[in-house]
Amino acid sequence: MSEGKSPRHAAEQESADVSEAEIAVHWPEEDYVLPAGQFIAQAYLTNPGVFERFSLDRFPECFKEFADLLDWYKYWETTVDTSAPPFWRWFVGGRINACHNCVDRHLAAYRNKTAIHFVPEPEHEAVHHLTYQELFVRVNELAALLREFCDLKAGDRVTLHMPMVAELPITMLACARIGVIHSQVFSGFSGTACAERIADSESRLLITMDAYHRSGELLDHKEKADIAVAEAASAGQQVEKVLIWQRYPGKYSSAARLVKGRDVILNDVLAGFRGRRVEPEPMPAEAPLFLMYTSGTTGRPKGCQHSTGGYLSYVAWTSKYIQDIHPEDVYWCMADIGWITGHSYIVYGPLALAASSVVYEGVPTWPDAGRPWRIAESLGVNIFHTSPTAIRALRRNGPDEPAKYNYHFKHMTTVGEPIEPEVWKWYHREVGKGEAVIVDTWWQTENGGFLCSTLPGIHPMKPGSTGPGIPGIHPVIFDEEGKEIPAGSGKAGNICIRNPWPGIFQTVWKDPDRYVRQYYARYCKNPDSKDWRDWPYMAGDGAMQAADGYFRILGRIDDVINVSGHRLGTKEIESAALLVSEVAEAAVVPVADEVKGKVPDLYVSLKPGLLPSTKIANKVSAAVVSQIGAIARPHRVVIVPDMPKTRSGKIMRRVLAAISNRQEPGDVSTLANPEVVERIRALAT
Ligand code: PRX
Q: Which of 541, 544, 556 for a ligand 1 pocket mutation test, highest count of atoms within 8 Å of Cβ?
């Protein structure tokens, strides 16, 4: 353990501050909504006996069913090695390749089936339907290039900073084919955020695109690569090559100069690899497939390391049985591949099942809120997957749009944040036309795939609640003392998972201590125990369980703000603000927002002698955008005379959050400076 603390002690300190788990539940319990008979008639999973098959006493052998959805070069010997908790090793001894499983093995039956429908944002541009054969060809050519032109080999890391284009899954699969670990950074993140991830993963190569469309504009993206490479170099990581896809092959769409000897137009070099084939590398099941960075309690984003065999089996099984993807379905997950949802449920899960998966470049409401429904109609999409934020935006901007289009969803997913029952009902009634079943899936970047959800062909739905743990997942809610909070008690606590599962991440890249500390230490009664039962996984979410076993997720218990379903660390935002020379202190708090769920309000105090000004506030806002990306842009920057502080000097974010949300801050008399509260309130409201 770092700093010589016991794991338990360290974790207690981290979570002692705020406990959203203690907040009262403000939504009344909703009535059940039954799945349509039509859906059940065709669903893969309709027998509740599945839960017996996956009962805790069948752990871990029950997960063989997951692995058996895949092709193995060498079948594994040990289902899970739990001898060094909490570092779990799934399907030990097995050899597998993720690219083979998502591409090659489908050629015999599905060569001419569409693997990826790429939908450009400009509506006049043609949709590109990439067949499995075409995907195979393009992935092979790129894999050959990565190996020979870039000298990459299994185990190397490559950072991708790519928008939502077909080339992104092609690039990921080409990496997977030769055992290279990809680390895709959300394209909306800044060059600085990209640099941080390049440095942490020690990538020698950056793969990007010159430009992409967003909200009607062709955005210059290559300029971010220049920042990323320069800043990674100052952090000690040299990027040798930048490979640049062209959004329009043959035409360079960026104003940023090409750096000689470093920047390479990928489309040009690929011409020399025409027709090349590369045998997929048989990787150990536990070889890392990719890194996905996410925000946590400290400032630095952490690289969640996901395995090949365990992860792929998990996303394949959950895509098949929770999303009910059949070979004839057209599936559209409207997330961004830059987040875990896109990795698991646009790329790896659906492609492992030989599905047709839609990749849409732009924003859902561009040029109007009818766009998603036009896409659904024209491609015959019948499974749809999105977030409450997108649903809220579509509902606000075009409540009557879905009815205008002739599409029919059999199944819809919501993910990423709690969905208000009213919004859920609109989704069900208008988007789903009363026919589609909805699954509200709860999980996290660290988890690989869904943890809680109703089974679409078995359970009734309950608006605003996720469901019980999916087969093989055994959640439990603990109170602060580690006592179990029973279902139906009306009390909230910290949701944990009792058992390991194949999709769980392997570690935090280069920081195993943090992995143990943040996710396992809190409720581990005996750090020396070698028994997996002593190592429940703590998700960091407050939750309660109703008498029927359904969970309701209440939000983060740590310093993380969930903006539009994406996690932003408060410390990341605050450290960006502190880069502005005038700023002395910064504190960020979540504010409820009608569309985005939560948005960050940023409070700053200035160094002595400086006067507040709009100029400084704008500078702070710009610093946050350039450090992290537009997604973290503060809703407001409020310059305050001083922060509300405890006598020991700790900033009371809770008081600021109350002010931002127009609530009563409660008793502030114990603060070191109670008089400042009213002054802040006057400034902020
Ligand atoms: O607080 C939970 C919330 O999103 C967090 C995970 O965020 P991220 O790692 O970015 O992954 C998002 C997509 C999997 C969780 O800790 N969350 C996720 N799904 C739900 C949710 N909150 C309520 N209901 C959900 N269905």
A: 541
Mean pLDDT computed over 458-481: 96
CA dist 114 and 130 (Å) reads: 5
Cα separation, 176 vs 290, whole angstroms: 8
Backbone angles phi, psi at 330, to 5 degrees: -110, 120
| Bridge partners for 664 per DSSP | none
| Residue 83: other Cβ atoms inside 10 A | 11
User: What whole-number distance in Å separates Cα of residue 403 and Cα of residue 597?
Assistant: 25
Using CA atoms, how far apart are residues 33 and 467, in angstroms rounded to an integer? 13
Ligand 1 mean position, distance from CA 636 (Å) = 24
Residue holding tokens 């990826």?
Answer: 116
pLDDT greater than 70 at residue 71: yes
Tens digits of residue pLDDT in 170-217: 999 999 999 999 999 999 999 999 999 999 999 999 999 999 999 999
Least Cα distance to 469 among 499, 508, 432 occurs for 499
The CA–CA distances, whole Å, from 633 to 52, 190, 301, 508, 566 equal 47, 12, 17, 27, 13
For residue 299, what pLDDT is reported?
A: 67
Rg (CA), the chain: 24
Consecutive H or E run containing 359:
strand 356-360
Q: Are 405 and 447 in contact (CB under 8 A)?
A: no
CB 601 within 8 A of CB 656: yes
Cis? peptide before 634, omega within 30° of 0:
no
DSSP 3-state of 427: helix
Residue 417 CA, ligand 1 centroid: distance in Å: 5
Per DSSP, the three-state class of 431 is: helix
Q: How close is the Cα of 454 to the center of ligand 1, in Å?
A: 16
User: In this structure, are residues 633 and 190 in contact, taking their beta carbons and an 8 Å threshold?
Assistant: no
Looking from the CA of residue 446, the nearest atom of ligand 1 is 9
Ligand 1 shell residues, CB under 6 Å: 294, 340-341, 415-418, 440-445, 466, 539-541, 553, 555-556, 562, 565-567
Tens-digit pLDDT profile for residues 475-514: 999 999 999 999 999 888 999 999 999 999 999 999 999 9
Q: For the segment 321-334, what is each residue's pLDDT rounded down to a tens digit?
A: 999 999 999 999 99
Cβ(131)–Cβ(114) below 8 Å = yes
Q: What is the 3-state secondary structure (H, E, C) of 107-123?
A: HHHHCCCEEEEEECCCC
